[in-house]
Amino acid sequence: MLHPPNILTVAGSDSGGGAGIQADLKTIAALGGYGMSVITALTAQNGIGVTGIHDPGADFVARQLATVLEGFPVAAAKTGMLFSARTIKRVAELLRTRNFPLVVDPVSVSKSGASLLREDAVQTLKAHILPLADLLTPNRLEAAMLSGVTMDSTDVIADAGKRLLDMGPQAVLIKGGHFDGPVTVTDWLFVPGEEPVPLRHARVESKNTHGTGCTLSAAIATGLGRGLPLRVAVTNAQEYLNLALRRSYNPGKGVGPLNHMAK
């Protein structure tokens, strides 16, 4: 019997269960992976907002990561909320010699507007984590923050994508969910030496969008861990995200999560 691939998520905990580590592990399990986690921060949050963040410290984050890497053959990994410059450096040190694909979701702000990345950590993220990424998956706001391009229209996406590739990732997926478009959403895939590839999917009208970025990056990592080519892993992840949005519901107050177990 073939065992599921070991997929690792290095991210923050969402006590409301809709994003972060919790969303990642649900996604990995739903798509046939064995999920493992390194918790970089603990958040007190629900669908209304984030009321607090606890930093467990870079040393303990590094201990979690080193222990997992020692004990398991990892097929693929993703990073999400890394929070502090010191944690970013320690995580980068341990992932630099890895032999598996890495998806980097540069989480910086929650759906409710809470900062999930300290201001002094942005440059550290660019210098230490982006060059390690096999795929970088920023949304509109994150792409603007990292590239310095004002993302006020889709006309500048190509410029932002090129600038992000120049920072070292092997590929970049700029997510289009934050751009206006009544019928479709277009994510743009950038690979060095190739023309940008528009990947379109149907827009789903739902207020239950908490954890979409976490879910997509975890789904892509799971696909890569199963040996899928990058573009196939991305399009499969888009389809899964779209289904989870269509079948979403709200278990509590405020913005609801996706339905990660949707069939």
Comma- or semicolon-separated keywords:
263 residues, alpha/beta, UDP-N-acetylmuramoyl-L-alanine:D-glutamate ligase, 6-stranded mixed beta sheet, 3-stranded antiparallel beta sheet, 8 helices, 19% strand
How would you sum up this structure in a few lines?
The protein contains 8 helices and 9 strands.
Name of the CATH superfamily of the domain at 6-138 and 204-246: Ribokinase
Shape: globular
Order of helices and strands: EHEEHEHEHEHHEEEHH
CATH architectural category of the domain at 6-138 and 204-246: 3-Layer(aba) Sandwich
- As laid out across the biggest beta sheet, the strand order is 3-2-1-4-5-6
Helical content class: 25-40%
Number of strands: 9
Poorly predicted regions are none
CATH class of the domain at 6-138 and 204-246, named Alpha Beta
How large is the share of residues in beta strands? 15-25%
- Distance between the amino and carboxyl termini: 24 Å
Largest sheet properties: 6 strands, mixed
What is the count of helical runs?
8
Write structural notes for this entry:
The protein has helices spanning 20-30, 58-71, 85-95, 122-129, 140-147, 157-166, 212-225, 230-246, and strands at 6-14, 34-45, 50-54, 76-79, 102-104, 135-136, 172-174, 184-190, 197-202. The protein has 263 residues and is α/β, with parallel strands linked by helices. It has a domain at 6-138 and 204-246: Ribokinase (UDP-N-acetylmuramoyl-L-alanine:D-glutamate ligase). Helix 2 (58-71) packs parallel to helix 3, helix 3 packs parallel to helix 4 and helix 5 packs across helix 6.
